[in-house]
Design brief:
36% helix, six-stranded mixed β-sheet, alpha/beta, globular, ATP-binding, binds adenosine-5'-triphosphate, 23% strand, nucleotide-binding, Urea ABC transporter ATP-binding protein UrtD
Amino acid sequence: MTTTRPLALEVTGLRVEFDGFVAVRDVDLTVPAGELRFLIGPNGAGKTTVIDALTGLVRGTGTARFDGHELLGRPVHRLVRAGIGRTFQTASVFEGHTVLQNLDIAAGLHRRPTTLLRRRRGVPEEVLRALDTVGLDDLADRPAGELAHGQKQWLEIGMLLVQDARLLLLDEPVAGMSGEERAATGELLRRISRDRTVVVVEHDMEFLRNYADTVTVMHRGSILAEGGVDEVQSDPRVIEVYLGAPLDAPTATATARATGRETR
Ligand SMILES: Nc1ncnc2c1ncn2[C@@H]1O[C@H](COP(=O)(O)OP(=O)(O)OP(=O)(O)O)[C@@H](O)[C@H]1O
């Protein structure tokens, strides 16, 4: 099953506290389908915590609606069923199983493992489609543990596609990837975001410049700025807080970062 109409993620007043420490506050965020949204900000800005709150890993207050469903306060398995999928900074695939088996497991989480492993004929259509989308057709029978780093991330994205995730929240998907893998991932995210809602947490400024439609900048738990890449990169508040330099005296490092010669 594929998405038939664009869906937006609409977050208002999101707040997350850890033992009295407010990690995320007053976050309003709307992400339409068809747009590749990047979420950036210095370390500790609250990016991952936002994703954690939307995927049920931490408790958040406020509202977060997707496809008519309130996401906050729902258990993880119900969020998966509601079409919410995420990846982590480290790919979590079943290394001993083949690419196809990983996708098959993701496609039928409710089936018993023995049934899953016996099914070699009649590969479900959504699995074939995901293999094609993430470009792993030729590696379908390869154990996931033998895949290159980038390929594991693509497999993980494929696993979200077979679950029919329509809101994908991806945490630093290109970290540790080669230039070629980054470009392939960027194109993959573009394809996916045409009819799904995709939010990417990323530090890599070059990747951001090449692929982001819109950028949301977080700082100290709140949203600091939002707009196109050029707009955000030239915003003095962003230069000051995200790049870590005082406005009137940019350091060599900050200047290098602002012009994209450094990635973090
Ligand atoms: N489980 C937790 N318990 C207590 N504090 C936490 C927890 N998770 C995150 N924090 C704190 O919340 C703040 C936001 O962290 P978060 O990981 O969301 O930032 P981030 O923007 O994703 O940073 P990075 O780019 O380094 O991954 C940080 O100060 C962090 O130390």
